[in-house]
């Protein structure tokens, strides 16, 4: 009888610990939401913004990292939410151009620090690097998690879509910057990196961070590819969106979300999600 009671107590303790781990986990979504351009027609932002917001809300994103967000989109993603936002426009370091913005639940997280640097030879100011076609930025924020009583950092970026050398050099710059800004704390690095996993640019990141998909305790969920080009019958073969972590985090789950409505995707990329614990 005593052994039965002991076993029951152990099982109850395990269930309690598992529930606590789920409750204290951080859900983070990385999502290229596609910039707002009228030429997208039926897929233009005004016709899909509500679906983007509903997706983020349904999947309980504690942190949302977006790419390609223009100022109006940045503002609309904040409306009727409990988010605060870190990020600047890539063209002037203020409001002009696309953001690589980071949204975080302000009731759970306290911002300790944050900033933006450019993916270029002059990262401290608005600039275009190497053979890139456009200015590119990485925004970052250091947060205190009130649930877990821990600090961590989130970095979010969008590599150039044209410059091969720019993507390679951007990865090298990111490695230096992340190690400089966050030498000891847990780190999450997200982004649309415009490269597939076998490339040098990804190898550089994997030399010091771990792909959340590969680290997930549960088998990764969803398709392999993350770019759909607004085609509902896309084969979804090419993975170009990523969430990386360092050893400060355990990845409980990872998924590529193929949510749709009326045979339409909310963006030309699929969002990716990871559930993280310290």
Automatic annotation (TrEMBL):
Stated name of the protein: Metal-dependent hydrolase, endonuclease/exonuclease/phosphatase family
One Pfam family here: Exo_endo_phos
Organism (species): Pedobacter steynii
CDD domains listed in its UniProt record: EEP-1
Keyword line: Endonuclease, Exonuclease, Hydrolase, Nuclease, Signal
One of the record's GO molecular function terms: 3'-5'-RNA exonuclease activity
UniProt xrefs under SUPFAM superfamilies: DNase I-like
Signal peptide stretch: 1-20
Endonuclease/exonuclease/phosphatase domain boundaries: 30-269
């Amino acid at each position: 009888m005593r052994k039965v009671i002991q076993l029951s107590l152990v099982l109850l303790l395990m269930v309690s610990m598992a529930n606590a781990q789920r409750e204290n986990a951080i859900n983070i979504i990385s999502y290229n939401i596609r910039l707002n351009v009228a030429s997208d027609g039926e897929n233009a932002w005004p016709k899909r913004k509500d679906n983007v917001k509903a997706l983020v809300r349904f999947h309980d994103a504690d942190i949302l990292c977006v790419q390609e967000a223009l100022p109006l989109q940045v503002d609309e993603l904040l409306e009727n939410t409990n988010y605060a936002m870190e990020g600047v426009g890539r063209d002037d370091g203020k409001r002009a151009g696309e953001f690589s913005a980071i949204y975080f639940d302000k009731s759970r997280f306290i911002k300790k620090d944050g900033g933006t640097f450019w993916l270029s030879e002059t990262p401290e100011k608005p600039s275009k690097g190497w053979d890139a076609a456009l200015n590119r930025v990485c925004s970052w924020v250091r947060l205190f998690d009130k649930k877990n009583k821990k600090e961590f950092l989130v970095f979010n970026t969008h590599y150039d879509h044209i410059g091969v050398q720019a993507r390679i050099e951007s990865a090298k710059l990111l490695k230096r910057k992340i190690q400089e800004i966050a030498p000891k704390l847990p780190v999450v690095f997200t982004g649309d990196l415009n490269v597939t996993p076998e490339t040098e640019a990804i190898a550089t990141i994997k030399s010091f961070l771990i792909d959340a998909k590969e680290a997930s305790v549960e088998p990764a969920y969803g398709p392999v590819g993350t770019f759909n080009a607004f085609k509902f019958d896309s084969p979804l073969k090419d993975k170009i969106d990523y969430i990386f972590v360092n050893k400060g985090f355990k990845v409980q789950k990872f998924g590529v979300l193929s949510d749709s409505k009326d045979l339409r995707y909310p963006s030309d990329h699929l969002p990716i999600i990871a559930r993280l614990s310290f």
